[in-house]
Amino acid sequence: MMRVLSKILLTCLVSSSVVYGADELTGDTKLACEAILCLSSSERPGECAPSLAKYFSITAKKAHETIRKRKNFLKLCPTDETAKVDQNYASLIDTLSEVGGGCDANTLNKNLEKRRVRIGESRIRQTQIRVNPNMPEYCVRLARHNYTNIKSIKYTCDTKFYDMASWNRGYELISINQATYNTLPSDKKEVQTNPEYTKCGDPDRSSYWQKLCRQNTPQYFFFEKKYFSKVCWVD
Questions:
Q1: pLDDT value of residue 18
Q2: What is the Cα 118 distance to its own chain's centre?
Q3: Can you give the residue ranges of every domain in the chain?
Q4: What is the annotated signal peptide range for this record (predicted)?
């Protein structure tokens, strides 16, 4: 059905050129037509950059005002009488005016979701993050529309949230014993010094206390690195 949309816009451009003159198809009029085609497809070549930059630059303080302004921009693309009565085309313009970003895998993988959770019984809250597994509603509507060519993509991660430290380094640290640690390759393990062990050398304490402290306090913590992917949406 993408061919139908292309045909409609081509007919509009040709008829407008005849009636109004070719120079009518420059500027925002031309960009509006290009934006409609570019927003309706997962394929966005470099030629789409100017029209999409124009479209996404249209903003307002309130969301509904942004949608209205973007819709008015898209309607600058001239339409003949057939397009005006085509309900599929009309609904496409309505949907495109709500598009807040790309619906391709690369864009959706940058759509991060954060939450604040309490750690155990304490009052301390931790920020956790993941790639949002929920596709924006406008992407769902575009994918289902008769006049679009949006590739089918799927979410392949496990929807798990990660603390910010794990997210930034790209892997979780799973506590293990030293014996297991010794069996792992170097890129799959990590060791950390126990800060409590350093306190066992407190000079204000007796040598007997220091000895007991060292006997009962592990000097190191051993971990296995569990890597995870941040590329969750794939074609």
A1: 36
A2: 25
A3: 2-100, 107-165, 170-227
A4: 1-21
